[in-house]
Amino acid sequence: MTVPDLVLLHPPSVMDFRKRTLLLGPVSDLIPSTPVFEMYPIGFTTIASHLESNGYSVRIVNIATKMLASKRFEPERFVKSIDAGVFGIDLHWMPHVQGALELAKIVKRQHPDRPIVFGGFSSTYYHEELLAKHPEVDFVLRGDSTEKPMQMLMDALSSRKPLDGIPNLTWRSGKGITINPLSHVPENLDDVMIDYGLMVRKVLRYRDLEGHLPYKNWKNNPMSIAVSVRGCTHNCVNCAGSCDSFSRNFGRDKPAYRSPEMLADDVARAEEYVKGATFVVGDIRQPGRQYASRFLSELKARKVKNDVVIELFTPADKAFAEEVARSVENFSVQISPETHDEEVRKAQGKPYTNAGLEKSAEAFLDAGCGRFDMFYMIGLPLQTPESVDGTVRYAEKLYEKFKGKRLFPFISPLAPFIDPGGNAFENPDQLGFRLFASTLEDHIKLATMPSWKYVLNYETRWMTRAAIVDASYSSGLGLNSIKKRMGLISEDVADRTENRIRAAQELSKKIDSIVGKRSATDGEMDALREAAANLSESTVCEKGELDWTEDTIYASIPRMVGSLLRRK
Fold this sequence. Notes:
By secondary structure, this protein is of the alpha/beta class. The protein is built from 23 helices and 17 strands. Strands 2-1-3-4-5-6-7 form a seven-stranded mixed sheet, with helices on both faces. The chain starts with 5 loop residues before the first strand and ends with a helix.
């Protein structure tokens, strides 16, 4: 088989997670992936699409999903069995720091002459430390748009041309570490390609379904993504994607948007391949209501049937809800108010009221919204354990007010790390945060701690690490009890969730005692390992509560085959 020019590898959060005792906690209960964070970034797809359109062959391999799919899968043996002109590894969010660097070491051991390129938000933030302290990393491509810089790097490496002119590149030269200007910051996203058929073609070419899955459960809950924006107009204190962070770290002083017409094309093309929800990343009102109206008009013209999931960064009015309903047959909405406490929400960077939030939910639900999800967080500035309890009580009021109207409040901890580059990370004392890690090495040490309590890279002036853990479990019990009492989930589901939460609380105490005495017998560790493996997923709620579709991937097979035939 022909060797691809580039292989993009996605690591698990911790490379040897199957052998370690890790109580990973409810850190991923409200996202599609497991606590191994096996969902690779959308940048893999856009980079691969761009390079393939310019004559390069690219393969994506999700090492994390392959490890989850089979206990017999050995990453080192697999890496040895493949080859590429260049290997790319994402270090986008910090939970992957240990896994990404361990995977890079494996690649360098097996293919010492092949260059390894890192990219992503965290790679950008730590680009100098990556090259100074990690010889397994040869290049870092910085910024939020590395499609063209990656092509330029591939061109230069294949023709042995100088690297000085490649934008956004950090690399080793005879002078030491060379940092090229971060000058490729596109003003719009209309040149970004998303080939939704790429995964299907690559699965067939390499006969590797698991390696191309975006996340473990994608076969049962397929979802596609359309990206409206890079950058943000908002400034949530703990986010590396805030407007301050984009300006400070990624050279972006204002957001770059995809045109409404192209964004609608993305949603329609995704539907050609996948029968399931299409998530539109970014609040489509950010560029203004005219942009949102143009996009919705274009969407209506394309007669999209898939469930379209839109994000709200702030509450929306009734007129907008009705416009969405007129434009797409099936739609759902997500918003993250973070807390019921308006002062805490304001400190987090979201100064809007509960009254506005409830009016928005009512407007969308009355307009026919399939589901309206609200996400609350634990570990915010000004937030106390009593405030978290108040959020649970507020969620109960929402359930009572909207009972039977498909409103779903969820709550989980802000974990495991606050983002390097965000305002809370840059100004912790000013914003009431205490950091336990600042460097890559600090985060690597935290990532392999035995319990998520010790993995947290922060606590706040108002809640210690222990308080964040306790509040996460107690709020999970509270919401679970409310949903059971109101008949929103079955008694069986509620009882399973309560048992998992209480078992996780007990296991957390056992791990605390072992960490305190710094030793444990092999038998103790084996028992902890087995228990932890069963208590780190669907902890505070059943993960299935987040599923947007009842269709499995098999319902999409006719679409995939038809699209491939039409493409030929």
